[in-house]
TrEMBL record:
<keyword id="KW-0812">Transmembrane</keyword>
<feature type="region of interest" description="Disordered">
    <location>
        <begin position="662"/>
        <end position="688"/>
    </location>
</feature>
<keyword id="KW-1133">Transmembrane helix</keyword>
<keyword id="KW-0067">ATP-binding</keyword>
<dbReference type="InterPro" id="IPR041027">
    <property type="entry name" value="FtsK_alpha"/>
</dbReference>
<keyword id="KW-0547">Nucleotide-binding</keyword>
<feature type="binding site">
    <location>
        <begin position="373"/>
        <end position="380"/>
    </location>
    <ligand>
        <name>ATP</name>
    </ligand>
</feature>
<feature type="transmembrane region" description="Helical">
    <location>
        <begin position="49"/>
        <end position="66"/>
    </location>
</feature>
<feature type="region of interest" description="Disordered">
    <location>
        <begin position="171"/>
        <end position="196"/>
    </location>
</feature>
<dbReference type="Pfam" id="PF17854">
    <property type="entry name" value="FtsK_alpha"/>
</dbReference>
<feature type="transmembrane region" description="Helical">
    <location>
        <begin position="78"/>
        <end position="97"/>
    </location>
</feature>
<feature type="compositionally biased region" description="Acidic residues">
    <location>
        <begin position="678"/>
        <end position="688"/>
    </location>
</feature>
<dbReference type="InterPro" id="IPR018541">
    <property type="entry name" value="Ftsk_gamma"/>
</dbReference>
<dbReference type="Pfam" id="PF09397">
    <property type="entry name" value="FtsK_gamma"/>
</dbReference>
<dbReference type="InterPro" id="IPR050206">
    <property type="entry name" value="FtsK/SpoIIIE/SftA"/>
</dbReference>
<feature type="transmembrane region" description="Helical">
    <location>
        <begin position="133"/>
        <end position="151"/>
    </location>
</feature>
<dbReference type="GO" id="GO:0003677">
    <property type="term" value="F:DNA binding"/>
</dbReference>
Length: 688
């Protein structure tokens, strides 16, 4: 099927290119033919110079289809084609109007041809010539931008320009008065990006040819630095602090994708000393951080975070949201020096910090990652970018993923990646089986290492390579919502996660777990103790922030990918804007691997589930005997006595109900009614 798809696409793309070439030959009369000549004449007469536009349009469409452009959703594709066609007509009409709507010229195949002339004449009846020309010119530009997919970028740039021009007159006078920033603290624009201090890209020359090319991913979209606004905010900060009796100076700034961090150096307050002489006393940093709400009010900022002091620096950092945010893209981070320097297959591109520098980390060293934040704060986007980052750098022989997504929609689009063991699991019971399988796999790997006298996965794989034997892949287990698992089988989940977290590192098994419920019943002390690397997205309160990071701060984040990353090797959390991928980028990467994949394999935990199903029959017998003996029926009783997890106990109860042994659920956690008599009564009845 995929082959047919590919073949059809290639045929269509080539067909469009050939049509473009034939149209060009016909219009320029380079060659004669019974079809080409009348076709060229028709184009010339009908479209005038627009005929050349049509040639370009066909060639562009052909190239686009060949490059895989049909992966775009059909409605979107149709919209873009219609817009490009509209742009072509608008251009032809504009040409005709500019040449005075001359029918003779149109018939001779000049200007916009008959069609351009016709459309122009139609609107000329109601509009004066300049307005008529302007209307078609604007239509041409607008439709071309939509057709080329540049509309959003153009409107954003236009808005930023209007904003800049609007603010200019009010600020220019004050600007010359005080250069507030020493040049050293400024983010110098890099040659590759043209803005925002993004480091020069370094592409590794040693990229494995089996890996997807980086060109599948989008380049960064950047906003220019609006220095005037930054200066105005800096002045406002100084002014507000002064109004509260705190002398302080803004000595620099660092601009990131969503926030700008202002470096504020506390000044001195003069106080009368014990001897009556004035004494200079430095402002305490806590005095500045206490004013965060007043500063937010003065700057009309939604939320404001104060880092007091910035670790390793002699100033306080006040982070003010930018008016426009820049989406952080994966590709420039993969190409950055910081990422390349990690030289790890499990290097993760997390985002950009408050100065626009890449934030990267090595999952192998973390060795597990905990992600938490309220709903809509950016967890799933973060997981999707982590998965894409991993599969951009690893073949399925090097890395396997076990993905669990009880929310069912967020990560299901990765189904079909050959890296995924089985498929993306969405049912609680199957997820518990994945964890049990991971524990088995870990034990088995330890036995293999022992036999091969290898200390860890790297040593084992090196030995296998020397013997020309295949090595073992690393395994990353990803859970998109831990709360669901913890609610239905808390003991089993906690036990498995903790054991894996403690022991799995050497075997190349790593965990990435996310939750939107940062409460202590989900992130228990034991789990937290074993997951020192954490990412906190925006949360509702400082209590939640402390549950995740053991520190305040996440409550002041702005949401939508704004995060605090706690790297155990660094100590204090780093603020960053997370990477976001377009759907089209993910689709291209999945399609790349899908094309190379063999038939999907059965999940390795399938056998485990089958075994357990057989065990269930024994359990059912035991459950009947238990209910009959105790005359009580509840999930917790079955869990305790039969030593099973909640999902199994609940399933057993359902089966007992279907067999008419217990009544329906009572609600409110009450026990069910038992419908069979105790054993002796049964016997009495038999004998009597
Ligand atoms: N890094 C980012 N950059 C820009 N926008 C982002 C980023 N991350 C998330 N967003 C925006 O926030 C929205 C919500 O993100 P996401 O679905 O990841 O939240 P979530 O925390 O997983 O929520 P839920 O728990 O309800 O699934 C996204 O649709 C996107 O528009």
């Amino acid at each position: 099927m995929a082959y047919l798809d590919r073949f059809g696409r290639d045929a269509l793309g080539l067909g469009l290119l050939v049509l473009a070439a034939l149209s060009l030959i016909g219009m320029t009369s380079l060659s004669q033919g019974s079809l080409i000549t009348p076709w060229g004449l028709l184009l010339k007469r009908g479209l005038g110079l627009g005929g050349y536009g049509l040639v370009l349009f066909l060639a562009y469409l052909g190239g686009w289809v060949l490059r895989g452009g049909t992966a775009t959703a059909p409605v979107k594709l149709l919209k873009r084609i219609l817009a490009l066609e509209g742009a072509l007509f608008a251009w032809m009409t504009w040409l005709s109007i500019m040449e005075g709507l001359d029918l003779e010229r149109a018939e001779a195949g000049l200007d916009g041809g008959i069609i351009g002339w016709g459309l122009g004449t139609l609107t000329a009846r109601v509009l004066p010539v300049p307005l008529n020309a302007l209307l078609w010119f604007l239509l041409w530009i607008g439709l071309a931008l939509i057709g080329l997919g540049l509309w959003k970028r153009a409107t954003t740039a236009f808005k930023a320009w209007v904003e800049r021009e609007w603010q200019r007159p009010t600020q220019s006078t004050a600007l010359s008065e005080k250069p507030a920033f020493p040049p050293t603290e400024r983010v110098s624009p890099s040659p590759s990006s043209g803005a925002e201090g993004i480091p020069v890209a370094i592409v590794s020359a040693t990229r494995d040819p089996r890996l997807p090319p980086l060109s599948l991913l989008t380049q960064e979209e950047t906003n220019g630095i609006d220095e005037e606004r930054i200066l105005a905010v800096a002045r406002k900060i100084e002014q507000t602090l002064a109004e509260f009796g705190i002398p302080a100076q803004v000595v620099g700034y660092r601009r990131g994708p969503t926030v700008t961090q202002f470096a504020v150096e506390p000044g001195y307050i003069e106080r009368p000393g014990p001897d009556g002489q004035p004494m200079r006393q430095k402002v305490r940093v806590s005095q500045i951080s206490a004013l965060s709400r007043d500063l937010a009010l003065a700057l009309a900022a939604e939320r404001l975070r104060i880092e007091a002091p910035v670790p390793g620096r002699s100033y306080v950092g006040i982070e003010v949201p930018n008016t426009t945010t820049t989406p952080v893209r994966l590709r420039p981070i993969l190409e950055s020096e910081a990422f390349q320097r990690l030289r790890s297959p499990l290097a993760l591109a997390l985002g950009r910090d408050v100065s626009g520098q890449p934030v990267v980390a090595d999952l192998e060293r973390m060795p597990h990652l905990l992600i938490a934040g309220t709903t809509g704060s950016g967890k799933s986007v973060c997981l999707a970018s982590l998965i894409t980052c991993l599969v951009m750098n690893n073949t399925p022989e090097q890395l396997r993923l076990a993905i669990m997504d009880p929310k069912m929609v967020e990560l299901a689009r990765f189904d079909g990646l050959p890296h995924i063991l089985g498929r993306v699991e969405t049912e609680i019971e199957r997820m518990l089986a994945v964890l049990r399988w991971a524990l088995n796999e870990m034990d088995q790997r330890y036995r293999l290492f022992e036999a091969a006298r290898a200390r860890d996965l790297n040593a084992y794989n090196a030995k296998q390579t020397r013997k020309n034997q295949p090595g073992l892949p690393r395994i990353v287990i990803i859970i998109d919502e831990l709360a669901d698992l913890m609610m239905s089988a808390p003991d089993q989940t906690e036990h498995s996660l903790v054991r894996l977290a403690q022991l799995a590192r050497a075997t190349g098994i790593h965990l990435v777990i996310a939750t939107q419920r940062p409460s202590t019943d989900v992130l228990t002390g034991l789990i937290k103790a074993n997951f020192p690397a954490r990412i906190a997205f925006a949360v509702a309160s400082s209590v939640d922030s402390r549950v995740i990071l053991d520190a305040n701060g996440a409550e002041s984040l702005l949401g939508r990918g704004d995060m605090l990353f706690l790297n155990p090797e660094v100590g204090s959390p780093i603020r960053a804007q997370g990477v976001i991928l377009k759907d089209s980028e993910i689709n291209r990467v999945v399609a790349y691997w899908h094309r190379l994949a063999d038939e999907p394999e059965e999940a390795p935990w399938e056998a485990l589930l089958q075994e357990e199903e057989n065990e269930d029959d024994d359990l059912l017998e035991q459950a009947i005997a238990l209910v009959r003996r105790t005359q009580r029926a509840s999930a917790s009783l079955l869990q305790r006595r039969l030593r099973v997890g909640y999902p199994r106990a609940a399933r057993l109860l359902d089966e007992l109900e279907a067999m008419g042994i217990v009544g329906p659920a009572q609600g409110g956690g009450r026990e069910r009614e038992v419908l069979i008599p105790p054993e002796d009564e049964d016997q009495d009845a038999d004998t009597g």
